């Protein structure tokens, strides 16, 4: 049986977007995955053996039946075109071409377009809009950084190769001895697996990140700070600040421990401001640990097409951006949207109960490759090929480096790329609405 | 709707490449090209009555930040700008947002409304150039191309330091082909690498940390490589010390580095070997901000004696805008002065960038001097073919203000009105008030299309209306027989802001100032055949660099042609 080894494959799982994966293929089946972490491997392998959806499904009066793609698309187009305020959500686990068609679809529908960043790093976007964000690509960190700080994130669990590929362990041009040339600091509410690898762990009290950041900024500017802030002693704070001030190149990575804990975008705002302040002393950058492999791409594509990175409302014909009013959770919890298209995402598992309750009460269309709680409540389910495994396209790494996703195997029969499905949907919607179908060149 | 033949009758034609200066004549279009009017029958063509109107080739912008990572980061972090100018989806057009950082659709539409059809993206970092292409693909109407940032590149610095020009040229050829880019761009040579350590560079003779090479060596090395390869466009630079008091001396030194260097394009007809971008931003004297003054006159004096250098203006327009440049250390400095938000984006082994919002106010002496400096260079440089219109969009103002810049160029009266609104000390810091020169419409046509087409090496088919050229045409509602630009500058500004017609490769894209359709797009890039043997050797060496220091695999680095809508390689055989 001939085997094929595809090298330099891009892992379509987390924001690390590792592009050194080797995939062994036999008879159009992935039999082995090399270099990837357990999460990445699981994604590649699950597609061969897992529960794929391969037929379009239509749910009528509680019973599900298989239908033709044509029928599913027709039903979906009608549901969307009939809706007054449809929500188009997901987008972070597909390639940029699909995202671009999604924008056009939202525009034609006058819908609300949102991606998963509104429930992960939306606050990071808000903070960036407030104070900016001094950052860089990951290679800059690999080659130069001698101080790495992980704050409110646990890469060993969520981004397993982040430390080995980009920050802590690799040898860089100016860091020839690898980890020996670097100091690692972890700041978190729990002593995580990542913390175990750190030179220094600072345990911050739950919900007190803002205070700790404020104390660090104050200390940096040589103000008196209290004996203890956010559960951290003055001594520890001063020592960490000294480390930061005196490194040659510092990098602060942060995760949902900052963005989703008490204070949200204000925490991030303060973290970015700290890094800004540090640049008066040395080189320092900050970077969010983006979760889904192409959530950065969703922000990127939405922005060049609409001007705004997420929570884009087209109800007035032009894009309007007002998170708190125009994000997925806003229109769901306020019971505003009357239909939803979910692409490569599972909001039923991740959204608050109130939002899920409304979602379950409106017609939902899912485009996905496997069964999820969201496909379970969907009226129409359209099976998709998997971007990055069965479909080519672009994805943006957490540092917004764009990488070409590879196709390593053929999709199961009847499973089309998201962008093709969306194109057909767009065409049908335009037909119903009687408008010219916008040409999406980029896809 | 669009017939494939168009006859534009009786317009006043300004076509400097063909030395046509307001002659009343017909322009005919067939299959996307300009043809002899005798070959187009009136009955079979769409006839546009251009009597009493100005007809020019489609505008060519040599330097504008319209697509790619930093432009998009600018959009992302300035929703307040996104909200400033919106137009809903409809009439077959996509929705528009943004004033200084418009979305891709607005970018294409608004350029077309000005009568522009070719716009070069000013700077793209190699590692993120895929992004730049994705945006250009989505930008309607315009023909485009992008300049690749190569000056702070480790591989290049190593080759130049070792004096290995041949290898450097082979590498550049590979990079341009892999990135599908049009030319070589330099931004604060050496300064960006030092910015990797939070430092900058202070003169062209300063040294780069670790790499131990000077900006002067990088600049001369890359000019040499550019001419060895025979690229259509010259080396294109954003100098060191941008934005600083006294920076004109660095500018003059940079100018001087091109002296005696070859000019040898294999394609096109340029007669320059150095393009200095947004000259306004380093035409300053003074010791500090208090003594800040314009040295536009000194810069112009140099240009008047050195025809091998072209510049674009980077003209300040007195707007709230978004500054964005690969000059990372400059943006850091700027945010420390204006205290507004700051994005920084260093790119491994290659370059850096920064973004800061900025508000130019006539009442600020520094801003007024900046405004004057750009105009001084434009008005005191005798040969308009050395000058190109730009606002370094969006750095000194959005491109939508080009008609206003023209107003200042053609009318002393218009300048006086603006001077009256400026800080009262301006006349002591600039000679602007004493300059009488007013551009003619012919000169306007030179600086907004012809000179750029020539410097880009694309004047064979762009920037003119001769037979065989691309049918890119702009028609403006201004009657040079009845209207005097000098006395009615507002009328000209208005006419240039909303073209009566813009035609792109034979397609009518603007009618009565409104966008009515799209046109086939092209993206130009340099496809160079230099020295295959040497290239192989260079790539062998490069494998190690990628394996050790980049964070993407070398095989995933090049950009395939499928990323380009209308991919148009310009074939160059250099050896
Ligand atoms: S770290 Fe992320 S991108 Fe890399 S292999 Fe693991 S899951 Fe995939
Ligand atoms: Zn520029």
Q: Would you mind describing this structure in some detail?
A:
- The complex is a heterodimer of chains A (443) and B (575).
- Chain A is α/β, with parallel strands linked by helices.
- In chain A, 37% of the residues lie in helices and 22% in strands.
- Chain A contains 18 helices and 22 strands.
- In chain A, the strands form five sheets. In chain A, strands 5-4-20-19-18-6-7-16-17 form a nine-stranded mixed sheet, with helices on one face.
- In chain A, strand 10, helix 8 (193-196) and strand 11 form a beta-alpha-beta unit.
- Chain A is globular, with a radius of gyration of 23 Å.
- Chain A starts with a strand and ends in a 10-residue tail after the last helix.
- Chain B folds into two domains: 5-57 and 468-515, Urease, subunit C, domain 1, CATH 2.30.40.10; 59-148 and 186-222 and 238-456, Alpha-Beta Barrel (TIM Barrel).
- Chain B contains 18 helices and 24 strands.
- In chain B, the strands form four sheets. In chain B, strands 6, 7, 8, 9, 10, 11, 14, 18, 23 and 24 form a ten-stranded parallel sheet that branches.
- In chain B, helix 6 crosses helix 18 (532-549).
- Chains A and B meet through helix 3, helix 4, strand 8, helix 5 and strand 15 of A and helix 1, helix 4 and strand 16 of B.
- Strand 8 (132-136) of chain A pairs parallel with strand 16 (342-346) of chain B.
- Residues 63, 65, 122, 238, 277-278, 325, 392, 395 of chain B line the site of zinc ion.
Q: What is the CATH top level name of the largest domain in chain B?
A: Alpha Beta
Tally of alpha and pi helices of chain B: 18
Classify the helix fraction of chain A into a percent range: 25-40%
Strand content of chain B: 15-25%
Please describe the biggest sheet of chain B, giving its number of strands, its sense, and whether it closes into a barrel. Answer: 10 strands, parallel
Which structural category do the helix and sheet elements of chain A fall into? alpha/beta
What best-fitting shape of chain B do the alpha-carbon axes yield? globular
CATH overall fold name of the largest domain in chain A: Rossmann fold
Calculate the mean pLDDT score of chain A and round it.
96
Distance between the termini of chain B: 47 Å
Strand order of the largest sheet of chain A: 5-4-20-19-18-6-7-16-17
- Main beta sheet of chain A: 9 strands, mixed
The helix-and-strand class of chain B reads alpha/beta
Number of strands of chain B: 24
Radius of gyration of chain A: 23 Å
Total number of distinct structural domains of chain B: 2
Catalogue the unreliable spans of chain B: none
Q: What would you call the shape of chain A?
A: globular
Number of strands of chain A: 22
């Amino acid at each position: 049986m001939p085997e094929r080894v595809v090298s330099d494959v891009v892992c379509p799982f987390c924001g690390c977007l590792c592009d050194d994966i080797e995939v062994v293929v036999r008879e159009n089946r992935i039999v082995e995955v090399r270099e990837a972490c357990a999460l990445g491997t699981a994604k590649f392998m699950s597609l061969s053996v897992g529960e794929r959806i391969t037929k379009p499904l239509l749910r009528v009066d509680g019973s599900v039946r298989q239908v033709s793609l044509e029928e599913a698309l027709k039903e979906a187009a009608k549901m969307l075109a009939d809706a007054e305020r449809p929500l188009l959500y997901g987008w972070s686990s597909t390639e940029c071409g699909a995202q671009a068609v999604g924008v056009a679809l939202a525009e034609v529908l006058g819908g609300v377009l949102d991606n998963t960043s509104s429930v992960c790093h939306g606050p990071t976007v808000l903070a960036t809009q407030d104070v900016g964000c001094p950052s860089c690509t990951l290679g800059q960190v690999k080659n130069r950084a001698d101080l790495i700080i992980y704050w409110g994130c646990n890469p060993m669990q969520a981004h397993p190769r982040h430390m080995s590929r980009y920050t802590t362990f690799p040898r860089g041009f100016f860091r020839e001895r690898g980890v020996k040339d670097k100091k690692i600091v972890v700041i978190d509410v729990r002593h995580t697996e990542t913390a175990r690898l750190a030179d220094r762990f600072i345990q911050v009290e739950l919900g007190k990140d803002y205070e700790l950041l404020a104390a660090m900024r104050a200390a940096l500017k040589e103000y008196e700070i209290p004996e203890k802030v956010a559960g951290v002693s003055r001594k520890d704070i001063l020592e960490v600040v000294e480390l930061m001030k005196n490194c040659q190149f510092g990098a602060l990575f942060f995760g949902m421990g900052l963005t989703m804990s008490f204070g949200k975008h204000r925490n991030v705002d303060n973290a970015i401001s700290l890094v800004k302040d540090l640049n008066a002393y040395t080189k320092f950058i900050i970077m969010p640990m983006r979760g889904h492999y192409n959530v950065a791409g969703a922000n990127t594509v939405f922005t060049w097409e609409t001007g705004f990175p997420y929570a884009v409302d087209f109800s007035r014909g032009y894009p309007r951006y007002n998170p708190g009013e125009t994000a997925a959770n806003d229109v769901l919890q306020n019971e505003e949207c009357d239909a939803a298209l979910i692409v490569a995402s599972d909001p039923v598992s991740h959204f608050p109960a109130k939002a899920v309750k409304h979602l379950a009460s409106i017609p939902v269309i899912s485009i996905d490759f496997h069964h999820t709680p969201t496909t379970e409540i969907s009226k129409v389910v359209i099976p998709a090929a998997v971007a990055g495994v069965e479909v080519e396209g672009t994805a943006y790494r957490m540092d917004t480096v764009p990488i070409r996703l590879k196709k390593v195997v053929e999709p199961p029969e009847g499973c089309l790329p998201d962008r093709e499905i969306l194109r057909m949907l767009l065409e049908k919607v335009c037909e119903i609405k009687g408008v010219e179908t916008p040409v999406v060149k980029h896809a | 709707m669009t017939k494939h033949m168009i006859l534009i009758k009786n317009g006043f034609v300004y076509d400097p490449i063909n030395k046509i200066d307001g002659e009343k004549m017909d322009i005919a279009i067939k299959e996307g090209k300009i043809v002899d009017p005798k070959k187009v029958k009136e009955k079979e063509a769409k006839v546009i009555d251009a009597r009493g109107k100005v007809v020019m080739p489609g505008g060519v912008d040599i330097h504008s930040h319209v697509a790619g990572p930093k432009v998009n980061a600018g959009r992302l972090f300035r929703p307040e700008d996104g909200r400033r100018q919106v137009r809903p989806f409809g009439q077959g057009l996509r929705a528009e947002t943004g004033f200084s950082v418009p979305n891709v659709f607005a970018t294409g539409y608004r350029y077309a409304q000005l009568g522009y059809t070719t716009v070069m993206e000013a700077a793209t970092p190699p590692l993120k150039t895929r992004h730049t292409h994705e945006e250009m693909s989505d930008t309607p109407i315009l023909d485009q191309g992008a300049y690749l940032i190569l000056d702070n590149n480790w591989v290049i610095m190593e080759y130049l330091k070792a004096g290995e020009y041949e290898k450097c040229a082979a590498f550049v050829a590979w990079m341009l082909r892999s990135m599908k880019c049009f030319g070589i761009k330099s931004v604060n040579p050496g300064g960006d690498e030092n910015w990797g350590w939070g430092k900058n560079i202070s003169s062209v003779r300063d040294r780069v940390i670790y790499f131990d090479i000077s900006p002067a060596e990088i600049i001369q090395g890359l000019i040499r490589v550019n001419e060895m390869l025979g690229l259509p466009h010259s080396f294109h630079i954003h100098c060191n010390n941008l934005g600083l008091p006294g920076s004109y001396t660095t500018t003059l030194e940079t100018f001087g580095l091109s002296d005696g260097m070859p000019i040898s394009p294999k394609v096109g007809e340029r007669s320059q070997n150095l393009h200095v971008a947004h000259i306004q931003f380093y035409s300053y004297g003074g010791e500090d901000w208090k003594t800040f003054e314009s040295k536009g006159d000194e810069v112009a004096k140099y240009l008047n004696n050195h025809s091998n250098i072209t510049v674009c203006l980077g003209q300040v327009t007195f707007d709230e805008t978004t500054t964005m440049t690969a000059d990372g250390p400059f943006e850091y400095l700027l945010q420390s002065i204006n205290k507004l938000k700051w994005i920084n984006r260093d790119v491994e082994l290659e370059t850096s960038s920064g973004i800061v919002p900025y508000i130019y106010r006539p009442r600020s002496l520094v801003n007024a001097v900046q405004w004057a400096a750009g105009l001084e260079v434009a008005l005191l440089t005798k040969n308009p073919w050395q000058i190109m219109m730009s606002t370094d969009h969006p750095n000194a103002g959005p491109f939508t203000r080009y008609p206003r810049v023209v107003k200042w160029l053609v009318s002393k009266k218009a300048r006086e009105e603006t001077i009256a609104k400026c800080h009262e000390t301006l006349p002591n810091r600039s000679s602007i008030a004493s300059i009488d020169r007013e551009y003619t419409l012919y000169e306007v046509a030179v600086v907004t299309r012809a000179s750029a087409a020539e410097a880009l090496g694309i004047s064979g088919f762009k920037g003119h209306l001769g037979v065989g050229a691309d049918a890119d045409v702009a028609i403006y509602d201004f009657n040079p027989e009845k209207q005097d630009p000098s006395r009615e500058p507002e009328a000209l500004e208005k006419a240039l802001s909303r073209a009566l017609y813009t035609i792109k490769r034979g397609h009518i894209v603007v009618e009565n100032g409104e966008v009515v359709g799209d046109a086939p797009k092209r993206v130009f890039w340099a496809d160079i055949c230099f020295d295959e043997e040497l290239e192989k050797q260079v790539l062998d060496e490069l494998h190690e660099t990628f394996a050790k220091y980049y964070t993407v695999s070398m095989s995933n680095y090049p950009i395939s042609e499928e990323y380009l809508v209308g991919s148009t390689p310009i074939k160059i055989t250099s050896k």
